[in-house]
């Protein structure tokens, strides 16, 4: 968990590799659905572009399906989910049904000015979705698939500021909910190099 641009995807990918378990990013799944032109992707578009949250029932459907897959049997990393208390309650139910215990909630924090800077310089591939951070130039060819590098539609400064408001209002209560429930919440300072934060994450969750 963490605000937009805190580094959830970056650290989630590192954890996915180091733990050898799949990562389910609701943002990535929705962007993939949009690129594929599915009904779900089409319906999510207006929420995502406006920096609003996609309705809980859509998100819980995505996660419920993902966690029932064979690849999730030995564990998984959730990235960008849950973002509302209703999603956290839904996740509890899904996990109970599957007999799975949530080990830890990782919370990465970064101050707002740094977030706006990171997201306004982030480039992603419009074809494969890879994130290039501040490297590369707009409209250049993606080094992975040859697609075009673009800014994410929701990474304009005004939309990022709105995403931060949404985060404070709808997602911070989820952290309070987990803390009150006695779950292990690991707080990590997200300022520093990617490697420094990786080390803090690994120390925090004991891997
Ligand atoms: P999503 O894609 O999840 O967006 P987000 O949470 O706003 O997070 P970001 O992907 O912007 O940032 P991140 O924290 O993953 O950081 P990253 O590692 O990329 O969701 C998008 C939209 O989908 C939502 O607004 C909503 O509409 C919908 N949605 C998704 N999940 C939902 C849910 N559960 N419920 C409802 N709606 C949902 O890093 C950011 C940049 O910083 C990169 O360029 C990276 O290279 C760079 N960077 C990373 N680490 C560092 C570092 N240590 N120092 C400097 N730069 C760094």
Plain-language structure description:
The chain is mainly α and 207 residues long. The protein has one domain (8-21, 74-205): 3-Layer(aba) Sandwich (Rossmann fold), CATH 3.40.50. Helices cover 51% and strands 10% of the residues. It is built from eight helices and six strands. It has helices at residues 8-19, 26-36, 39-49, 56-67, 85-98, 112-120, 157-181, 194-205; strands at residues 23-25, 77-79, 105-109, 124-125, 149-150, 185-189. The strands form three sheets. The chain has a two-stranded parallel ribbon with strand order 1-2. A two-stranded parallel ribbon has the order 3-6. Helix 1 (8-19) packs across helix 8 (194-205), helix 4 (56-67) runs parallel beside helix 5 (85-98) and helix 6 packs across helix 7 (157-181). The protein is globular and about 45 Å long. The protein starts with 7 loop residues before the first helix and ends with a helix. The model has no long low-confidence stretch (mean pLDDT 94). BIS(adenosine)-5'-pentaphosphate binds next to helix 1, helix 2, helix 3, helix 6 and helix 8.
Q: CATH superfamily name?
A: P-loop containing nucleotide triphosphate hydrolases
Strand order in space, largest sheet: 1-2
Work out the helix count: 8
Q: Give me the oligomer status.
A: single chain
- Tally of DSSP β-strands: 6
CATH class assignment: Alpha Beta
Mean pLDDT: 94
Q: Using the coordinates shown, work out and report the CATH topology.
A: Rossmann fold
Which descriptor suits the 3D outline?
A: globular
Bound molecules: BIS(adenosine)-5'-pentaphosphate
Distance between the termini: 18 Å
Helical content stands at 40-55%
Write the element-wise H/E pattern from the N-terminal end onward.
Answer: HEHHHEHEHEEHEH
Counting structural domains, the number is 1
Beta-strand percentage range:
5-15%
Please outline the major beta sheet.
2 strands, parallel
Structural class: mainly alpha
CATH architect. name: 3-Layer(aba) Sandwich
Query: What's the alpha carbon Rg, rounded to whole Å?
Result: 17 Å
Please mark out the parts with pLDDT under 50 across 5 or more consecutive residues, or reply none: none
């Amino acid at each position: 968990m963490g605000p937009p641009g805190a580094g959830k995807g970056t650290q989630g990918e590192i954890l996915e590799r180091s733990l050898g378990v799949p990562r389910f990013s609701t943002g990535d799944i929705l962007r993939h659905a949009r690129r594929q032109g599915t009904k779900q992707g089409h319906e999510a578009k207006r929420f995502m572009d406006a920096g609003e949250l996609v309705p809980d029932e859509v998100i819980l459907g995505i996660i419920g399906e993902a966690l029932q897959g064979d690849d999730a049997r030995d564990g998984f990393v959730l990235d960008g989910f849950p973002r509302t208390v209703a999603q956290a309650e839904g996740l509890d139910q899904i996990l109970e049904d599957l007999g799975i215990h949530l080990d830890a909630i990782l919370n990465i924090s970064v101050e707002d000015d740094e977030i706006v800077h990171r997201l306004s310089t982030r480039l992603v591939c419009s074809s494969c979705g890879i994130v290039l951070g501040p490297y590369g130039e707009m409209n250049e060819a993606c080094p992975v698939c040859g697609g075009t590098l673009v800014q994410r539609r929701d990474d304009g400064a005004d939309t990022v500021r709105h995403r931060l408001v949404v985060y404070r209002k709808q997602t911070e209560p989820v952290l309070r909910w987990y803390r009150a429930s006695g779950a292990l919440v690991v707080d990590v300072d997200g300022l520093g190099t990617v490697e420094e934060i990786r080390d803090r994450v690994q120390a925090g969750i004991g891997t």
